[in-house]
Description:
Largest sheet: 4 strands, antiparallel
Distance between the termini: 64 Å
Number of domains: 2
Amino acid sequence: xxxxxxxxxxxxxxxxxxxxxxxxxxxxxxxxxxxxxxxxxxxxxxxxxxxxxxxxxxxxxxxxxxxxxxxxxxxx
Length: 76
């Protein structure tokens, strides 16, 4: 058994570990709720972070360039 950030207890059932599984929450107001979680191995952390950063930076650069082009076209 582990706890959530609020101190509520939860337990994993089936699958578990790096392959995923179900988490049954025992938080107040949640009766037998089941959440599906998927865990990634620790070795995947930085490659996933860098990939996500690259995607967001590329999207941001694209949107900034589009906004600059659009502004230039509208004022010309």
